[in-house]
Amino acid sequence: MGKRAIALLMLLAMACQRLPGRNPTPPVSTPVSIGLTTGIPAPDFELERLDGGTVRLRDLRGKVVLLNFWATWCGPCREEMPLLAQIYRDYHDQGLEILGVNLTSQDDVSEVRKFVEAFDLPFPILLDHNGRAERAYRIFGVPTTVFVTREGVIHRVAVGILKGREDVEKTIRPLLSR
User: What's this model's pTM, rounded to 2 decimal places?
Assistant: First the structure.
């Protein structure tokens, strides 16, 4: 390498160095927590039901609650709905409540109705029109399923499609037996 090239590289290296009082290090931002932590109280909400009326989460204390955040345009949501419908039918009488929380701020109510009819969903479908529940639960992908104890505490958060009946039963059976 010639003397000119070396001198040019040295000038470039010096120009890139931080000089005292110049080019201050940008402040480090606090990372945003993604998803909820287990062991904390489940954020309360009141949402409109697709079939009318409203549901408040706090009114379900004493039941094990499975919150499933979903949307009609979500392929994995479509895949897991038959499983959730069957789990509801099999465990509802034992104290399990499933609430399908539709991300209505990103969806269309007429599509939600078609989806519910197509899958013959037996559990309540809630409409999160303004995304308030979605933000409270820090949902960053659907489907997301949140398992809540009878005392209203988050026991487990499953992001993505559920791994099957055995996986769900492994979570809910101990909660139902308490």
Answer: 0.81
- Give percent helix, percent strand, percent coil of the chain, each to the nearest 5: 40, 20, 40
User: Cis ω on the peptide bond leading into residue 76 (within 30° of 0)?
Assistant: no
All residues at 6 or more sequence positions from 128 whose CB lies less than 8 Å from its CB, including other chains: 47, 101, 102, 103, 104, 105, 134
Task: Please give the span between the terminal C-alpha atoms of the chain, in angstroms, as a whole number.
Answer: 76
Contacts of 137 (CB under 8 A, 6+ apart): 36, 43, 67, 69, 144, 146
State how far the alpha carbon of 133 is from the alpha carbons of 17, 18, 101, 125, in Å: 47, 45, 8, 13
Q: Which of 116, 148, 159, 170 is nearest to 41 (CA)?
A: 148
Tell me the pLDDT band of 32, cut-offs 50, 70 and 90: very low
Q: How far is CA 150 from CA 7, 21, 39, in A?
A: 72, 57, 13
- Mean pLDDT, residues 25-38 taken together: 56
SS3 state at 68: strand
Strands 64-70 and 96-102, how do they pair? parallel
Among 177, 154, 6, which residue's Cα sits nearest to residue 91?
Answer: 177
Residues 6+ apart with CB under 8 A from 55: 46, 47, 49, 99, 124, 126
Backbone angles phi, psi at 91, to 5 degrees: -120, -5
